[in-house]
Specification:
Layout lengths: L15 E5 L28 H14 L4 E5 L9 H10 L3 E6 L6 H10 L3 E5 L5 H8 L4 H15 L2 E8 L7 H10 L4 E6 L14 H17 L4 E5 L4 H4 L24 E4 L4 E3 L9 E2 L5 H7 L1 H8 L4 H4 L11 H8 L22 H7 L3 E2 L1 H6 L5 H17 L4 E2 L1 H7 L3 H10 L8
Parallel strand pairs: 1-2, 1-8, 2-3, 3-4, 4-5, 5-6, 6-7, 11-12
Antiparallel strand pairs: 8-9, 9-10
C-alpha cells in the first residue's frame, strides 16, 4: 500500500447508486455477478416495499439529484417497482431501470414513464440473436430485448444499450453501436467483465485485448458523434484519452470514467447491504441496522478507497489519480482492494513521474466564487460535473478567470439541454 493522499473532512455525496432490488430473474445469464435465480416469489430476506421506501428517503436527503439505478436480477419482477420509481423521482433522485428488456411491454413502459423513470438500460450483447441468447441462457432473449428497446422509445423513456464484451463478441461492437444508434439510444455502454458471481466461470479478456477494444470504442465514438459510447469498468480509458485528474474533454467530466467505487458510487444488495460496487461483494454496512449517512461517511474501507493510493504499478503510474485501475479486479486477483490492477498493460514512458494531486489544481483554468459554486447544487448531481466543465470552458474562452453568480445565470444550460445531458454523461453503474 502506498502512502495516503491528503484525507478529506467529509466525503462528497454519491453521483450514482446501483440497487439490486431482487435476485429473481427470468433469465440465467452466464456472467451474472449477482448469481440471480429463477423463482416464483421474492426471497424472504429481500427488502420489502416499506424498507425500500425508507432507504429511498435516506438517499434523497443524503444525495439529492443522484442517479438511482434500479436493477436486479430482473427488477420488473417486483410488483412495487413503479412505486419505488415514483418515490425516487419525488425525492429529487433520477430513477433509471436496468433490465434485460424481455418483460418490458408497452403498458409497463408507460407506467414507468408516468411514475417518473428517466430511462432504461437494456442489455444487448450481440447484433444477432445467437450469442446473446446463449449468454443469457434463453432462446428469444435477444428478440425480447429488441422489443423492450422499441416500447421504451415509444413511451418516451431514454434508452441506454448495454453490452458485456468477451473475445467472442468484441468484433461485433461496431454492429452493436450501429444498432443502438438506429434504435434511438442516447448511449451505448460497453462493460468489461469482472469475474465475480457466476462470472468466475467466464474467460476475461487478455490485457492486449483490453487495449485493442478500448481503442475500438474511441474509433466508434468518432463514427457515431450523436451516440455516447463509453467503456465501463475500464478506467484506463482516461489514459487513452490523455485526461489527467481534474481534466474534462471528449464528453468525459473531470470525475467520470475512472473507478468511482466507494468514492462517488455504491451498490445496495437485495438484502439491504451496502458494497463499494457490485463487483466488490463484501458488505460494508447493513441498511436494516445503519443509516446510509453513517455508512457513507464512516466506513474505513470507503475512507481507504477515497484517500489512499493503490499499490504496485498503479501507485507509481503517471495516471494513478485519474485512472487508478479497477479496484474490483485488484481484489479478485490479489485479495486486496488497493493492490495493482492485473489487467492493465500500460508502462509509463521512461522518466515519466507519478501523477500528483497538484496536477489537478494546476490544470484548473478558473476559480469559482462560493455563491456561484452553490448555484450548481440546483443542477442534478448526475450532470453537475459536466455543466461545471462546460461553464469553465466558456469562461476560459471569454478570458474570465473567476466565475460569478451572474456568469452562471447568463450561461446556465436550459432545461432541454440538461435533460439531454442526463444520459450523455457517462456513468459507472453496472446494469443487467
Amino acid at each position: 500500500m502506498m502512502p495516503a493522499a491528503a484525507p478529506t473532512s467529509l466525503p462528497q455525496p454519491p453521483y450514482i447508486v446501483s440497487w439490486n432490488l431482487t435476485r429473481r430473474c427470468n433469465l440465467v445469464c452466464a456472467h451474472c455477478y449477482l448469481d440471480a435465480v429463477q423463482r416464483k416469489t421474492q426471497a424472504g430476506d429481500e427488502l420489502d416495499t416499506e424498507d425500500a421506501l425508507t432507504v429511498i428517503g435516506q438517499l434523497s436527503q443524503m444525495a439529492p439529484g443522484a442517479m438511482l439505478v434500479l436493477t436486479g436480477g430482473e427488477p420488473l419482477l417486483r410488483s412495487d417497482l413503479p412505486r419505488l420509481v415514483k418515490a425516487a423521482a419525488d425525492g429529487d433522485l433520477m430513477p433509471v431501470v436496468g433490465t434485460n428488456g424481455t418483460l418490458l411491454d408497452a403498458a409497463r413502459a408507460r407506467v414507468l414513464k408516468d411514475a417518473g423513470a428517466a430511462g432504461v438500460g437494456i442489455s444487448l450483447d450481440s447484433s444477432a440473436p445467437e450469442f446473446h441468447d446463449r449468454l443469457r441462457g434463453a432462446p428469444g432473449a435477444w428478440a425480447g430485448a429488441r422489443r423492450g428497446i422499441a416500447v421504451a422509445r415509444e413511451a418516451g423513456l431514454a434508452i441506454v444499450v448495454q453490452a458485456t464484451v468477451f473475445e467472442d463478441n468484441r468484433g461485433d461492437l461496431g454492429a452493436l453501436a450501429e444498432l443502438a444508434a438506429q434504435a434511438g439510444a442516447m448511449a451505448f455502454n460497453v462493460f468489461f467483465l469482472v469475474c465475480t458471481g457466476r462470472g468466475v466461470t467466464q474467460t476475461d479478456l487478455a490485457s492486449a485485448s483490453y487495449e485493442e477494444t478500448l481503442r475500438e470504442i474511441v474509433r466508434l465514438q468518432g463514427r457515431h458523434p450523436g451516440l455516447k459510447i463509453r467503456a465501463r469498468c475500464a478506467p484506463y480509458m482516461r489514459r487513452l484519452q490523455g485526461l489527467h485528474a481534474g481534466e474534462s474533454g471528449g464528453g468525459y467530466a473531470d470525475w467520470s470514467s475512472a473507478c468511482l467505487a466507494g468514492r462517488r458510487y455504491f451498490r445496495i444488495t437485495p438484502q439491504g447491504q451496502v458494497t463499494p460496487c457490485p463487483y466488490v461483494p463484501a458488505a460494508i454496512g447493513d441498511l436494516r441496522t445503519q443509516s446510509l449517512q453513517q455508512i457513507w461517511t464512516g466506513h474505513p474501507t470507503l475512507h481507504a478507497l477515497r484517500n489512499e493510493l493503490p499499490g504496485g504499478k498503479c501507485g507509481t503510474c503517471d495516471f494513478r489519480y485519474s485512472c487508478g485501475g479497477c479496484r474490483a479486479r485488484a481484489l479478485a486477483q490479489h485479495g486486496d482492494l488497493l493492490a495493482e490492477d492485473p489487467k492493465c498493460a500500460y508502462v509509463p514512458p521512461p522518466g515519466r513521474a507519478p501523477e500528483t494531486p497538484a496536477e489537478s489544481g494546476q490544470r484548473r483554468r478558473v476559480e469559482w466564487e462560493p455563491d456561484a459554486d452553490a448555484r450548481l447544487l440546483h443542477i442534478p448531481a448526475f450532470v453537475r460535473g459536466t455543466v461545471k466543465a462546460m461553464l469553465e470552458e466558456r469562461a476560459a474562452g471569454e478570458g474570465i478567470d473567476r466565475i460569478t453568480v451572474e456568469f452562471v445565470s447568463r450561461h446556465r444550460p436550459p432545461a432541454a439541454v440538461l435533460d439531454r445531458l442526463r444520459f450523455r454523461v457517462r456513468t459507472h453503474e453496472p446494469i443487467d
